[in-house]
Amino acid sequence: xxxxxxxxxxxxxxxxxxxxxxxxxxxxxxxxxxxxxxxxxxxxxxxxxxxxxxxxxxxxxxxxxxxxxxxxxxxxxxxxxxxxxxxxxxxxxxxxxxxxxxxxxxxxxxxxxxxxxxxx
Length: 120
Prior knowledge:
Oligomer: single chain
Order of helices and strands: EHHEHEHE
Strand order of the largest sheet: 1-2
Number of helices: 4
Largest sheet: 2 strands, antiparallel
Number of strands: 4
Number of domains: 1
Structural class: alpha+beta
Helix content: 25-40%
Radius of gyration: 14 Å
């Protein structure tokens, strides 16, 4: 999973954990997409920003600042701080290694509280 196109590997110069997991979801998805654009990877499609999960908003996070980290580092720290949510990445095939594999996975990146209506 160390492929350059993997959005979990994008470097973030600095990020502060937001108040809750819902805001973190939006922040990481936006920063991951912007990282791709900065690296010159272009693809068709769009991004919806601002769709806020009220269930995930109940999961609060402490304000913690990170410098020079990856999306993965931030996500794993948040998961360690609040074990009440999960994040799911579905890859289109068993050994993803192309930009289109990672683009497809990014589009299916989902965040859910562990006790969710969607999981029932």
